[in-house]
Amino acid sequence: MDRQADITAMRRAVELAARGLGATSPNPVVGCVVTDASGHVVGEGWHQRAGGPHAEVHALRAAGVLARGGTAFVTLEPCNHTGRTGPCAQALIEAGISRVVYAVADPNPQATGGADTLRAAGIEVGQGLLEDEAEAGNLAWLTSVRTGRPFVRWKYAATLDGRIAAADGTSRWISSADSRADVHRLRAEADAVVVGSGTARADDPHLAVRGVEGAVQPLRVVVDTEASAVKPGARVLDDAAPTLIAVAEDADTALPDVVRLPRAAAGGLSVPALLDALHARGVRSVLLEGGPTLAAAFLAAGAVDQVVGYLAPVLLGAGPNALADAGITTLTDALRLHVTDTARVGTDLRITATIQGA
């Protein structure tokens, strides 16, 4: 076996998987490359939408009879159950594949076991090739399966000295047009976009995806504890995307599409209850765009998995910070981040990081 050729094929499978971001929930994103017996690529595929054929099926269809005796490179362990589609492990067996290499084991107890089924059928199986790359590409779904709640990505834009607005409240625009366009990409990858009452009052945000071709609109969620921030006629209530208003159990409101949740001891709504309610609605990934108070509540609840900060080359010296009090009183309790990516976006610097130990 040519290890470099295997790496090249799996890296291509990871690239293919990314094409499904934002369109496959509550299923994972998966990519597959099929090579023939001599190692030539004869089929490619990715999971394109929930309920549709899985990546392996697309790749096998493209390969046809050339798949017999070949190898399938898959970013996630082939599934072993029948849902809206049949088990991919069985499809690989029937296609005559002789070797399967997958990157990440499937943590879903309903779907795992594909590798054992393949081995029982006499197929050579390898695991772990480019596991970190495939894991990063499927981070949202894997997190949701492992934790039983949606993956949460907190996004914010700030000046280089950490301000999200000037002292007079003006904030448009701190970040560049390129950064704002990049945020729409993040929205398109998410199942839900969440803001708080402060953002709703200050900005009357729309929260729908713009400028991303073929995007599936995420659920727009406003955390409005007292049911006082979202008024009839608010932009978030239009028909561009579905909307959910989260209010306290005792709040008085006549708005449609409301979910009532318990209050948190420290004020506001219970973050775990909110995430449970969203998970029950099929939400597996959340883009948290709320202001400093809501971000602090999520962080204090241990419910932030990834941070994406857009830092603009601007200094203000005064104004609200990106993060409010999250209950951290000493440096030893600080949440340390592991930076996974840095990039120039327009005139800004985008930093992507995960919380160490999360």
From TrEMBL:
Any idea of its EC number? 3.5.4.26, 1.1.1.193
**Recorded metabolic or biological pathway in which this protein acts:** Cofactor biosynthesis; riboflavin biosynthesis; 5-amino-6-(D-ribitylamino)uracil from GTP: step 3/4; Cofactor biosynthesis; riboflavin biosynthesis; 5-amino-6-(D-ribitylamino)uracil from GTP: step 2/4
Q: Which InterPro entries match?
A: APOBEC/CMP_deaminase_Zn-bd, CMP_dCMP_dom, Cytidine_deaminase-like, DHFR-like_dom_sf, Eubact_RibD, RibD_C, RibDG_C, Riboflavin_Biosynth_HTPR
Where does the CMP/dCMP-type deaminase domain lie? Answer: 4-126
Q: How is the cofactor bound?
A: Binds 1 zinc ion.
Q: Which CDD domains does the record match to this protein?
A: Riboflavin_deaminase-reductase
Family assignment from sequence similarity: In the C-terminal section; belongs to the HTP reductase family. In the N-terminal section; belongs to the cytidine and deoxycytidylate deaminase family.
Name recorded for this polypeptide: Riboflavin biosynthesis protein RibD
Organism of provenance: Streptomyces hydrogenans
Ranked from the top, the taxonomy reads: Bacteria, Bacillati, Actinomycetota, Actinomycetes, Kitasatosporales
